[in-house]
Write a structure and sequence with these properties.
By secondary structure, the chain is α/β, with parallel strands linked by helices. About 65% of the residues lie in helices and about 5% in strands. Helix 9 links the parallel strand 1 and strand 2. The longest helix is centred in the middle third of the chain and has 37 residues.
Length: about 400
């Protein structure tokens, strides 16, 4: 069973560069002009390379969960491990055909297989994307019926149209092509560029779904000194909304379980400022609710300055360190928000582990889409490097294939 925050060393993937260099050198040796082709050896080297990459990404993912689960790397390793798995599957199919029926396939087909790997992955994952898009639309329609017509309530429908539109474009645009060699190359370049962009965001989406699910379903160790409750909107009369009440109840349930198991009673940190349309601060609202549930006032710390999740974590950390700089911290929020909440905690260098409160089924998917859009704004430099490297790889490979 994987436990969060059990490792002090961040996993690195520099060895993948050495693995790639070694595989490239071996392939160059096997494919030297005048030496004759070695199809079986080349297929084996490529297959073993893809398998090694998958295993390395999965071990890095496990290490990342043990070091810091609330990281862009968690998303990256998950999404691209699935992508390389699709490359391995298609490579195995082509290799078996090549070796069983010599002359029907050539080694050049393996090059074009890599060139078309983004398109192949998108088409292989099409059933999942279509089912996911349909589920988003259904949940958004229910959300609009319950919560009203607002722009934020149709984000899931918009994402569904983008996903399905991209699939249709790749399927139909790549099927019909004719003309000169240059025209065909430019066509393939456009198709591969679009597929690379789509691939990146699909890997991000799938990785984010996995990261959110793992983070939301995780149960922290029952050894916490503090539980931060992240605020959200309150009612006009100062009472907590069902969403906020769910976060408080989740924290209370964990605290009760911890006390039963270990006898340790954590301090609650109610975190949330007062909005312009709120009668009292979210922190005061939560404190009042906790007092009504029988929590003594000395076990409640109020943080009433924050206006967003980043400030929730920063100001709560200040409150906690004033009491116990070495205290173990958990935070309670809604299930779709746990991963991003943990990411914000790590940004202020606070090792807090999250717990997720349930929400209505029709609200969760649309909220998860909003969180995904928010995640796209994080780690801009790292995302730019991965995205740019992916695009350059497919552009370069397209030109090489048509030399």
């Amino acid at each position: 069973m994987i436990r969060f925050d059990t490792r002090d060393k961040k996993p690195k993937l520099y060895d993948l560069l050495l693995l790639t260099a070694a595989a490239a050198a071996l392939l160059a040796l096997l494919a030297r002009p005048g030496e004759g082709e070695h199809p079986a050896a080349i297929c084996a080297v490529l297959g073993l390379y893809y398998l090694a990459v998958i295993l390395r990404l999965l071990t890095a993912l496990r290490g990342q969960l043990g070091y810091n689960p609330y990281s862009y790397n968690t998303i990256l390793y998950t999404g691209f491990a699935l992508f390389v798995l699709s490359v391995l599957v298609t490579h195995t199919v082509v290799s078996v055909r090549m070796l069983r029926f010599p002359g029907t396939s050539t080694l050049g087909e393996l090059v074009h297989l890599v060139l078309g790997s983004a398109k192949n992955y998108i088409l292989l994952s099409a059933p999942f994307l279509l089912a996911f898009s349909a589920a988003l639309c259904v949940s958004n329609i229910s959300l609009i019926r319950h919560e009203g017509k607002r722009l934020v309530n149709v984000l899931g429908i918009l994402l569904s149209f983008l996903l399905v539109g991209g699939l249709l474009f790749i399927f139909f645009f790549d099927r019909y092509v004719s003309g000169s060699r240059m025209e065909v190359m430019l066509h393939d370049l456009a198709a591969n560029l679009f597929a690379a962009v789509y691939l990146y965001f699909e890997c991000m989406l799938i990785g984010a779904i996995f990261a959110n699910a793992v983070a939301a379903g995780y149960e922290p160790e029952p050894d916490k000194d503090f539980i931060i409750i992240l605020g959200c909107g309150i009612r006009k009369d100062g009472a907590p909304t069902p969403l906020l009440r769910g976060r408080i109840d989740r924290a209370l349930a964990f605290a009760q379980k911890q006390e039963t198991l270990t006898g340790k009673r954590p301090i609650f940190v109610t975190s949330g400022g007062q909005g312009p349309d709120e009668a009292i601060s979210e922190s005061a609202c939560m404190k009042r609710y906790l007092l009504e549930q029988g929590v003594p006032e000395e076990r409640i710390l109020e943080e009433d300055r924050s206006t967003d999740t980043a400030e929730n974590m920063r100001f709560s950390k200040e409150k906690i360190q004033a009491v116990d700089p070495n205290g173990k911290v958990a935070f309670s929020t809604t299930n779709y928000h746990v991963f991003r909440g943990g990411l914000k905690a790590r940004r202020v260098k606070m090792r807090a582990v999250g717990m997720g409160a349930k929400t209505k089924w029709y609200f969760w998917p649309n909220a998860a889409v909003r969180e995904f859009v928010g995640l796209l704004t994080e780690h801009r430099l790292k995302q730019g490097l991965v995205f740019g490297g992916l695009v350059l790889f497919y552009v370069a490979l397209t030109f090489l294939a048509y030399r």
